[in-house]
Structures are given as C-alpha cells and as structure tokens.
Amino acid sequence: MNTVYIPQGYTPPLEHYDLQRAIEYIKSHFQLHLRRQLNLKRVSAPLFVTTASGLNDNLNGVEHPVSFSIPALGVQVEIVQSLAKWKRLALKRYDFHPGNGLYCDMNAIRPEESPFDNLHSAYVDQWDWEKIITREERTLETLMDTAQRIVYAICDTHESLQLEFPQIRTKLDRHVKFVTAQELEDRYTGQNLTSGEKETQFMRDTGTKTVFLMQIGGALKSGKPHDGRAPDYDDWSLNGDILFWNDTLDRAFELSSMGIRVDAEAMDRQLTLAGCDDRRALPFHQMVLNDELPLTMGGGIGQSRMCMLLLGNCHIGEVQASVWDKDTYNAFTEKGITLL
C-alpha cells in the first residue's frame, strides 16, 4: 500500500534549478563537517557482496535483498541493504587505528519497503560511517557524545545552507534530548500508539526539536522491541536513532541510525535472543566471535532525508530520483509539485 500526503498550503521551497544546486550543496558540505567532527576518511564502498560472505545486513529480519548471479565468477551476490558489517571488516583491512574511521556513500535497493510514502522509497542513499574505538569507549557516554557531534555537523550544514539560499525557512535545534526506548514505552503505556507515533507524541508533548532515542532492538517490558534491529551489528544496549522535528510534515523525523557494534559477548547473546544461531558459521560472525575484528561504532545518515529536512520538502521524491505509483504522481502533479 502506498500513501499520499501533501500538507495543506504546501509549496516547494525552491524551483527546479535552485533545488538541484541546494542538494549538491548539502551533500558536498555535510560530509566535510562530518569527517571533521568524527575524524573520518572517505573510502569507496561496494554496491553488492557475495551471499556466502554474510556481510549483507538483514535489517529488521524480514527484508529480502535483491540478488543475482555472476556466471563468470560462479557466485551469487546481493545488493547491499546497509554496510554495517562491511565497514567493520574494511577498517581492519585498511589498517585503521583507534580514533580514526571511514565514511562512504551507500546506495541500496529495498523493493519490499512498505508502505511507500513521504519518507520511504525503494531506493536508499546514505552516508555510512564507521570508526574504531577502544573497549573502554564502549559506553553510553561515547555513544551520546558521538550523536551530539553528528547533530553539530547537520546544524552547521544547515546554517551555511541558509546563507547560500536565504529563501529557506527551516529551523533546527542543536540541543539534543536523550531518552531510552523503555522510557518512551513507560510514558505511553496503555495508549495504542505505534513506535513512530510515540516518537512524534514525545517530541510534541515536550517541545523537543532534537532527540536521540537509545537502546533499540531488545525486548522492552511489554515483551516487544521499540523497533527491529539485526542482532549482529549494533549492540542493542548501545545504539540509537537521531530524530529531528520536521515542521513541514509536523512529525518526528528519523535521520540517522547508529550504534556501538557488537563485541563477541553481545554477538553471542543477541544471536541467541533473535533465534539466529545459524549465522555463527558465517565468516564475518566467526571473526567477531573470535575477537578478530576491531571494536567499532558506526551508522548511516540518510542523504535524501537530510535534503528533505534542511530544505523543507514534504516528499522524498522531490529530492531523489526513484519510482512512484500513478496515484502518487498524479496527486503531486495536480498540486504543481514535481517528483524526480
């Protein structure tokens, strides 16, 4: 099912030519701010990995990656769904050291995404980043400090963007409110709200414009997780999502998912909890369980979503070239809004 939502009175903030200039500005400037805040170096990333490597991510555990065979090599490969595992292996192969990290462009295809709406497309584009940390840095304090640094990079990009394009009227807040998924569940116990609705209601109730929602993936007191997370990359007790308030859509707006990655103990525990013990035999999982990979933290930051947020667009199709159903195209065309 696809949904169409156009806020009342909405008009695109920029015309076509200026929109493309602004998208280029955001993408080129944000990565500079990000690399300075987190001490990162840019690397090239794969579009696909072999199925047998175990390097692809299964996200919430239900998505099936796009796959195909390469007859000349005799292998089956999958379009990446994210690069969380590949980045950790790359840090080892490229001889990075604690305090240093990498970032790259990640492009994915998620055809089973549902519904396709203002925020979700079959095409995903992210900045993916990963850095090596010490065992002493595997703490909530490290996680929270890094989330704040990413927010600084986003807000710095936004401020310079508004100087270049003064017609943009979006507002962001550098001050981050830290809250756990359990605290969110406790606050809205008994209310029939989805996870996303809880996030929006919390930001509306508290007047908070920027939130880092922590500890996602493990079962809460209700017996259910706030949201799904694969068991083999983030430590569920040391991860989180960066949320901004989106004035255009009048809702909480997830821009980044990140976390401190599993060590051997967390991998062992979470594979069992998720019923995924069969993955223990995969090469990547063996390396983690045998302490053969560096301890890291990392995440993904949506490129098109950032453009939406900073520019004030209401639909991801305004800033990203993808494919949409006829009803969506027609609804936006009638309002004079172009989907790329």
What does this protein structure show overall?
The chain has 340 residues and is of the alpha+beta class. The protein has one domain: Bira Bifunctional Protein, Domain 2 (BirA Bifunctional Protein, domain 2). The protein contains nine helices and eleven strands. The strands form two sheets. It has an eight-stranded mixed sheet with strand order 1-5-6-11-10-9-8-7, sandwiched between helices. It is globular.
Layout of helices and strands:
Layout (H helix, E strand, L loop, with lengths): L15 H23 L1 E3 L5 E3 L16 E4 L4 E5 L4 H10 L7 E9 L13 E10 L7 H25 L12 E4 H7 L7 H12 L3 E5 L19 E13 L4 E11 L2 H10 L9 H7 L6 E7 H9 L14 H9 L6
Parallel strand pairs: 1-5, 7-8
Antiparallel strand pairs: 2-4, 3-4, 5-6, 6-11, 8-9, 9-10, 10-11
Radius of gyration: 20 Å
Order of helices and strands: HEEEEHEEHEHHEEEHHEHH
Q: Span between N and C termini? A: 20 Å
Mean pLDDT: 92
Question: For this structure, what is the CATH homologous superfamily?
Answer: Bira Bifunctional Protein, Domain 2
Overall tally of domains:
1
**Percent of residues in helices:** 25-40%
The amount of beta strand, in percent, is 15-25%
| CATH class group | Alpha Beta
Number of strands: 11
Distinct helical segment count: 9
The shape, in one word, is globular
CATH architecture: 2-Layer Sandwich
**Spatial strand sequence of the major β-sheet:** 1-5-6-11-10-9-8-7
- Give me the secondary-structure category: alpha+beta
Can you tell me the residue ranges where pLDDT is under 50 for at least 5 consecutive residues? none
Largest sheet: 8 strands, mixed
As for the CATH topology, it is BirA Bifunctional Protein, domain 2
